[in-house]
Specification:
It comes from Vitis vinifera (Grape). Pfam families: ACT. InterPro entries: ACT-like_dom_sf (IPR045865), ACT_dom (IPR002912), UTase/UR (IPR010043). This is ACT domain-containing protein. Keywords: Hydrolase. It is a single chain. With 232 residues, the protein is α+β, with helices and mostly antiparallel strands. The protein has a domain of 139 residues: ACT domain (Alpha-Beta Plaits), CATH 3.30.70. The protein is built from eight helices and four strands. A four-stranded antiparallel sheet has the order 1-2-4-3. Strand 3 and strand 4 form a beta hairpin.
Length: 232
């Protein structure tokens, strides 16, 4: 069940919405949207009786930046973060990490999709357009909204490939860059972020974007977008 401005955590009891700070209202909006998307996806976790309370607890563990940065269209990624943080509570699991391929779209990518869509007979059917757009990327985008610098990098690297005569780069792939997203969770401690970045550098990975969060109960959630790792 979606929460409104008078609900909080499992008790759902706080002061009037007029007393709620702006970041709390934003948190509620993001929470409700993520909850709706997860429930509509028919996810098994969403069927648990206390799922909404646990999801709300997840958002409350993390700072306001998490709410502002997370991509609500990737609601399933929030479940991944929740799972990793839960696993990190067991010392035997630490550090917990997950690696996946992601695709970073350059600023020109959306223009190319819009142009193709405008010339397509599918434009009368919104569902067909949704399916068409999703097929443009084999892999999901990064969990958090990519910075303009990352989008520019995606365009620059693929432009170099074209200039060097890479025959595998076509008009669409030249606007999309495949990278890896690595998510860590463990007990938070001083200089943890520095240690993680050093580890990634030692194995030859180039960090293009990083998002580091500390929970109120002493755990960390660190997400890196890197290149330099073979796709395999």
């Amino acid at each position: 069940m979606a929460m409104d401005d008078t609900e909080s955590c499992s008790s759902r009891a706080v002061d009037s919405s007029h007393a709620q700070p702006r970041h709390h209202r934003q948190k509620l909006e993001v929470f409700n949207e993520v909850l709706r998307r997860i429930q509509e996806s028919d996810c098994e976790e969403a069927k648990l009786p206390d799922f909404d309370d646990q999801l709300w607890l997840h958002f409350n563990r993390l700072p306001a930046r998490y709410v502002l940065d997370v991509n609500v269209e990737r609601a399933e990624d929030v479940l991944t973060h929740q799972r990793l943080l839960h696993l990190a509570e067991d010392p035997a699991n630490r550090p917990v990490f997950e690696v996946r391929l992601v695709q970073v779209h350059s600023a020109s990518y959306e223009d190319s999709v819009d142009s193709a869509y405008s010339k397509s007979p599918m434009k009368e059917d919104p569902q067909s357009y949704s399916n068409y757009s999703s097929r443009q990327g084999i892999h999901p985008p990064p969990t958090f909204g990519s910075s303009p610098n990352l989008e520019v990098l995606a365009l620059q690297v693929n432009r170099i490939q074209v200039e060097e005569g890479d025959s595998t780069v076509n008009s669409t792939s030249a606007l999309v860059r495949t990278m890896h997203e690595i998510t860590f969770s463990t007990v938070d401690k001083p200089k943890l972020l520095s240690q993680l970045t050093s580890i990634l550098a030692e194995v030859g990975l180039n960090i293009q974007e990083a998002h580091a969060f500390s929970t109120v109960d002493g755990f960390s959630l660190d997400v890196f977008v890197v290149d330099g790792w073979p796709y395999e």
